[in-house]
Amino acid sequence: MLITEMKSREVLDALTAGKKVFVINCHGCKEIRFPEAEASEYQKTLDVTGILTTDYICNPENLQIRLEKYAAQIEAADMVLVFSCGVGVQTVASALDTMKVCAACDTYALPGYQGVTPLEHDCDQCGQCYLNLTGGICPLTACSKSLINGQCGGAKKGKCEVDPNMDCGWERIYQRLKKIGRLDVLKCPVQLRNYAIDK
Ligand code: SF4
Ligand code: SF4
């Protein structure tokens, strides 16, 4: 089980101020609690170009079909704000890899059944989602050491020093941020991880 909680109003306002926003709500799977009413209220305060509310955005094929129907509204937006668990946000960021895609929620673990659907992306349910600083690629699961402040320095030709068969997660994050013109976020203050809220 897991639970999504909206980030603070201050954080969301800072992300969306002066921006045209395309909103994606995932009312997804039964393992996840989604803050539906709170999200709907907050979305009324945004300058939205469109709202897509659907389920299972973590399924790339399903998501692609839905995104195609909203292509014009997405094109008209400065950013896409996703209300879902971390897997959903990563799937959207992957599908819209030239757009600024942001997470509106943090994802926490809850005890209980977790589901067995094989997914392309992974979320460690850390409770303080970093995807807005990493171009929509999870640093906890894409990096073998779960580093949250950049590369360890051990990568060789873009491959991880722990597992040479996998791409270095931080190399991927750098390339994604470069592609969407957001390398500036790498200059933000050092991130601290609060293990007290971790599972
Ligand atoms: S940073 Fe990664 S582990 Fe943490 S909530 Fe976001 S996607 Fe999940
Ligand atoms: S090489 Fe990259 S993915 Fe591997 S541990 Fe270092 S930073 Fe993480």
Can you describe this structure in just a few lines?
The protein is of the alpha/beta class and 199 residues long. The protein has a single domain, classed as Rossmann fold.
List keywords for this structure.
four-stranded parallel sheet; Rossmann fold; three-stranded mixed sheet; alpha/beta; 7 strands; 199 residues; binds iron/sulfur cluster; 7 helices
Describe the structure.
With 199 residues, the chain is of the alpha/beta class. The protein has a single domain (2-133, 190-197), classed as Rossmann fold, CATH 3.40.50. The chain is 28% helix and 18% strand. The chain is built from 7 helices and 7 strands. The strands form 2 sheets. It has a 4-stranded parallel beta sheet, with helices on both faces. The chain has a 3-stranded mixed beta sheet with strand order 3-1-7, with no helix packed on it. The N and C termini lie close together (11 Å). 32% of the residues are buried. The mean pLDDT is 91. Residues 86, 106-107, 123-126, 129-131, 138, 140-141 line the site of one iron/sulfur cluster (SF4).
**How large, in whole angstroms, is the Cα Rg?**
16 Å
H/I helix tally: 7
The separation of the N and C termini measures 11 Å
Strand order of the largest sheet: 4-2-5-6
Structural class: alpha/beta
Main sheet, how many strands, which sense, barrel? 4 strands, parallel
Tally of domains: 1
Give the bound compounds: iron/sulfur cluster
CATH topology term:
Rossmann fold
Number of beta strands: 7
Average of the residue pLDDT scores: 91
* Shape-level CATH architecture: 3-Layer(aba) Sandwich
Under the CATH scheme, which class? Alpha Beta
What proportion strand? 15-25%
Outline: globular
Helix content: 25-40%
